[in-house]
Amino acid sequence: MCTRHLSRRSFLAMTAAAASVFAVGACGSSAPASPTSAPAAPAAATPTAAPTAAAPTPTPVALATPAPQAAAPTVAASGTTIRQFKEAPMLAELVKQGKLPPVEKRLPDPEDILVVKPLNEIGQYGGTWNQAFTGPADFHAFDRNTYEAMLRWPADLRNPIEPNLAKKWEWSDDNKTLTLYLRKGLKWSDGEPFTVDDILFWWNDIELDKNLTPAPHAEYVVNGKPMEVEKVDDYTVRLHYAGPNGLALRMLAFHGGQWPTAFEKFGFYAPKHYLQQFHPKYNPKSDYKTFAAKADDLNPERPVLWPWRITEWKPNENKLIAERNPYYWKVDPEGNQYPYIDRIYMHLVANSEVINLMAANGQLDFQFRNIDVSKYSVFSEKAKAGNFHILKWPAADGSELAFFPNQTIDDPDLRSAFRDVRFRQALSLAINRDQLNQVAYLGLGTPRAATVLPQSPYYSEGIDQLYATYDPKKAEQLLDEMGLKKNADGIRTFPNGKPVQFLIESSITAGTGLDALQLVVKNWQAIGLKVDLKTMDRSLYWPRAIGNQVQMATWGIDRGLEPMVDPIYQIPFDNRSWFAPQWGVWYNTGGQQGEKPEGPAAQVQQLYDQFKSTVDSAKQIEIGKQICKIAAENVFAIGTVGMVPSIVIVKNNFMNVPETAVTDWIMFSPDNLNPFQFYFKQS
Amino acid sequence: MLAYIIRRLAAMIPTLIIASMLIFAIIRLPPADFVTTLVAQAAQSGSSSDQASMAALRHQYGLDQPLYVQYLRWIGGLLHGDLGYSFEWQRPVGPLIQAQLLYTVLLSLASMVFMWVIALPIGIYSATHQYSLLDHLLTLIGFLGLSVPDFMLGLIYLFISAFYFHQPVGGLFSPGMESAPWSLAKALDLFNHLIWPTIILGLGGTAQLIRIMRANLLDILGQQFITTARAKGLREAVVINKYAVRVAINPLISVMGMQIPNLISGATILGIVLSIPTVGPLLLRALIDVDMYLAGSILLFAVILLMVGNLIADICLAWVDPRIRYE
To answer: Residue B31 is nearest to which of A36, A540, A546, comparing CB atoms?
Structure first.
């Protein structure tokens, strides 16, 4: 009894005492965390020697970087002589301690080293590159700094594809066999050699293993037959196709990286010496889940060919750290081994708002993804204090928001209306794109049709402005011509008396995108159409859209530079071609399912068949131009505003970043800007 | 007392079972599963989205089994301490949420302590100095705290700390501290990062407690035993602290139990807004992507937290108020 009495009293006394203590504590810490942290500046690692001219040695090595198709701008011309190779101080230290072989032993054979000119100047070694991302679902946030495919997209896509892991390639006379020559002496990040065996392992044990890849990717299947992969020697591989494969080179640049590229599950090679032990075929104790986990891009144990290899991935500590790959195989013209920057520190944060705030606060050194264009004014206000500048890189988006009138929808009235090109033209003419641009994109975008960019090889003059001017009168006139007369309420009706009514479905559920959607709904209502809008989460929207259930689908049209690797917006390609999913299914299944297309849609499919079987790139570009022109003239998809710039936040001491660049996911931007040659200027 | 606790613990088991079924059913309620989300993401970038690859993925993740099999597998794993596998993060759920759960509990507890420590003295003061200037002022602040949602306060805090004090945003540790071994410096760093979220999270509850404390105490102060105590010539401090407050505090302890759900959901939302590693960010993403074992485990832990919190509140109440019987 007594103890309870006492403890109850002390309980009360305790709370009162704690109150006063806490009040003092709270006052003392009114500026939280002030002493603990300064924004992470480029880390110490001051280079012992900024790369200087090399001392001549008696045996200069001739460097030939054959670019068989044409000289590419970023690749140094052949014949460059580099006398001596240099490395980052952190690696030199390891070499001194005997933990690493010297740089000459780590690089490929001298004649096979890839020399890449830095954008502006030779850089300095060192520094930590701070970036932020929101998790594995933040697609390729890390991969996009490091992608290494067999071939490489040029910086300007109108130029030919460049060599990368393969130093050269040649087609057989019948255009059915492609021979790839790998760089000799290439090494994985653990020092093991990279050879044709790594390609064969991927092909035989991943791409052809039904447990990992249910069916080989379309780019490896010609005329219904998978390619055959023949090993000539350790550094030469032949790909035999059943017919000419016009997509091969593009796909080696696009899908030719290390399997599995996050959730995409595509690639062209995998580290056999590491992964074989986890493959159920070679190790019955293992299973496919383990194999997938070990092959995962974010597994720090997995060897890579990237400029940086992941050394720590700890979601619990909100960080992903990648350090330079000591065996990276590209050098600058003075013989400095890339990359210049020591490590990448990716901060895992809860949402993209925080990324924007971190960037505005000067905590990030170079941030390309998740920067919100609508916060532009905040960034410019904070640029000086945060010591950064803002770049506006046009995205390769044909249209940030595009509409797809479904030409294979079940409703017969709507189907016939959507199949009438005049109806689609009217819809396009009725959109006030300038207003939409101001409201949703701060006027930074370009009002245009849903087609390729002027920087694309497949662009023809004027196709981006087809039916893209605001002309509601003309739109109404076109609808009148079709016989869709207005009734007493001002609603247009089909000849059978039913109102012209359709439902827009969208996965945009918030933000300025939703404002833009509602503007278009109003524009269309103004010309007498009964339009409703329904938005839902993407995971609900997607199955409906590919299931041919959506009357008017919406999505952003990207890949505005090189659509031909996956031309879902130009031709009915598969069930993702939402202007006619059933026609797409027909094409995708070789006529076994879906509906047979008619008119221009059938025509572009035939043209694409030609494109795929043509190896001559000049001819391909002609065909691609025709496809894009037909798609634009027939308004398969209705565009609004495109080429909205991506806002890029760059610290003032972060160098070798271009002022402008068209970015696209197909090219893994910003990887196509060679992040390995970015560097921190140290005063 | 011990028998009472054991009885209460036993009663938790059926509640947990029902809760786990509900959680699982609700997570799987939308027509989409993780593979659909995955394919939607991957297909946007040009991967094939054919039925065969979706079926293979479903098989790999065990999503092709009937729903009850999936549920039983999850529960079976739970009994062995295996919380399942997160599809999105490609790793087991257990180690993934360990630290985050700890921070959630830490933040909620800290907020609770903050609430009591602030609300009690203020409530007592307000009641004993009814309608004084300070009482009005504190009442005003209390209403503000009650009416402004914590995510709003969180955003204001983010804005001010980043734009006026140039503090780094997000996280619970300064750069470089995350992986350092535990030390006094690291604990201090954590305290510095945790203090504002604690205050923001606790503010709403504090205001509520102040109001309840004030009303109760005013009620008690008008009763006859207080008049008697004063008539006996006891000092005012004794009358208030020993006689009045002790009775007035009982309802507060019941309220504590009711506030636990607010704290847990508040810590979740605040974690997302402020980007601090509570389970909030993980849970939100897991729910969006139908990463069901991750979402299910987090929700189940929230349920356990809730039940344990309520039990503790009840025990506290029984301990403070001798009138309560354990039957």
So the answer is: A540
Averaged pLDDT of chain A = 87
Helix B51-61 to helix B34-44 angle (10° resolution) is 140
pLDDT given at position B228: 92
Q: Give residue A80's pLDDT band: very low, low, confident or very high (50, 70, 90).
A: low
| Contact check, Cβ <8 Å, A36/B177 | yes
Cβ–Cβ gap B320/A26 under 8 Å: no
Helix axes B150-163, B184-221, angle to 10 degrees: 140
User: Distance (Å, rounded) from C-alpha A603 to C-alpha A607?
Assistant: 6
How high is the pLDDT of residue A379?
94
Residue among A377, A646, A37 at smallest CA distance from B169:
A37
Q: Tell me the Cα Rg of chain B.
A: 24
Fill in the amino acid letter for A431.
Answer: I
CA proximity to A596, closest of A443, A370, A408: A408
Tell which A residues from 652 to 671 touch B, by Cβ distance under 8 Å. 665-666
A125 CB contacts (<8 Å, ≥6 apart)?
Answer: A45, A47, A50, A51, A88, A89, A90, A336, A340, A342, A679
A624 against B40, higher pLDDT: A624
Q: What angle do CA A117, A123, A125 make, to 5 degrees?
A: 125
Proportion of chain A in helix, strand, coil states, percent, rounded to 5: 35, 20, 50
CA dist., res. A238 & res. A222, Å (int): 15
- Nearest residue, CB atoms, A317 vs list B121, B178, B246: B178
Q: Are A346 and A319 in contact (CB under 8 A)?
A: yes
DSSP-based three-state secondary structure for A525: helix
pLDDT one-digit tens code per residue, A367-389? 998 998 888 989 999 999 999 99
Q: What ipTM goes with this model?
A: 0.84
Minimal-distance CA residue of chain A relative to B29: A540
CA atoms of A451 and A269, how far apart (whole Å):
33
- Rounded CA-CA distance A589/B211 in Å is 69
How many Cβ atoms sit within 10 Å of the Cβ of residue A198? 27
Q: Is the pLDDT of residue B145 over 70?
A: yes
Q: What is the pTM of this model?
A: 0.83
Read off the pLDDT of each residue in B135-159 and give the average, rounded to a whole number: 88
The amino acid that residue A183 corresponds to is R
Three-state secondary structure of A529-546: CEEEEEECCHHHHHHHHH
Determine the average pLDDT of the residues in B179-188: 84
Q: Over A296-362, what HEC string results?
A: CCCCCCCCCCCCEEEEEEEHHHCEEEEEECCCCCEECCCCEECCCCCEEEEEECCCHHHHHHHHHCC
Q: How many angstroms separate the CA of residue A60 from the nearest CA in chain B?
A: 44
What are the φ and ψ backbone dihedral angles of A573, each rounded to 5 degrees? -100, -45
**Beta strands of A477-593 (E only): which ranges?**
501-506, 530-535, 552-557
The pLDDT of residue A185: 94
pLDDT exceeds cutoff 80 at A47: no
Token look-up 């992470």 returns A40
- Within a 10 A sphere around the Cβ of B311, how many other Cβ atoms? 17
Q: Give tens-digit pLDDT for A183-200.
A: 999 999 999 999 999 999
* A12 → closest Cβ in B36, B176, B241: B241
Higher pLDDT, A139 or B210: B210
Residue type, A348: L
Q: How confident is the model at residue B48 (pLDDT cuts 50, 70, 90)?
A: low
**β-bridge pairing A343-348 and A128-133:** parallel
* Eight-state DSSP code of residue A291: H
B67: how many CB neighbours lie within 10 A of its CB?
11
Cα(A664)–Cα(A644) distance, rounded to whole angstroms?
12
Mind listing the pLDDT tens digit for each residue in B86-102?
888 888 899 889 888 99
Distance CA B168, CA B315 (A): 41
Q: Which whole-number Å values give the CA distances from A424 to A403, A460, A518, B299, in the listed order?
A: 10, 21, 19, 48
